[in-house]
Amino acid sequence: MKDRLITKELAKLYEKQGYLEDSLTCYISLYEETKEQEFADAIEKIQNKISPQEKKENKTDLKGKGNKALLLFEEWLNMLILEKKIQSFKKVQKKFE
């Protein structure tokens, strides 16, 4: 997601449309850039929507030591998913050419 413009509005739009993973990725990027509590709260909210039970079992504080690695790993996984979506789209697109 680094090559596109990431904004709070885009993150909210993804969330509203149900693309929670994409919304989470946007909020993580925004938090990493600004360290604003607003984005930390949004990350927690989205994570609770995605997997409330898992979040309760593994409470992570955004200020924790290993959290940067966790956030980077999560972003990497989201990028892999995005790449798979792009590959699928290209296959479909070729069928219509």
Q: Overview of this structure, please?
A:
This protein is an all-alpha fold. The protein has one domain. It has helices spanning 8-17, 20-34, 37-50, 52-57, 67-95. Helix 1 (8-17) runs antiparallel to helix 2, helix 2 (20-34) packs antiparallel against helix 3 (37-50) and helix 2 crosses helix 5 (67-95). The two termini are 27 Å apart. The model has no long low-confidence stretch (mean pLDDT 81).
Q: Encode the helix/strand succession as letters.
A: HHHHH
**Main beta-sheet strand count, sense and barrel state:** none
What do the pLDDT scores average to?
81
Into how many domains do the coordinates divide?
1
From the N-terminal CA to the C-terminal CA, the straight-line distance is 27 Å
What percentage of residues falls in helices of 4 or more residues?
over 70%
Low-confidence parts, pLDDT < 50 over ≥5 residues? none
Strand content: under 5%
- Decide which structural class fits the backbone: mainly alpha
Rg calc: 15 Å
Keywords:
0% strand, mainly alpha, 5 helices, 97 residues
SSE order and pairing:
Blueprint (H helix, E strand, L loop, with lengths): L7 H10 L2 H15 L2 H14 L1 H6 L9 H29 L2
Helix pairs in contact: 1-2, 2-3, 2-5
Structure at a glance:
By secondary structure, this protein is an all-alpha fold. It has helices at 8-17, 20-34, 37-50, 52-57, 67-95. It has one domain (8-95).
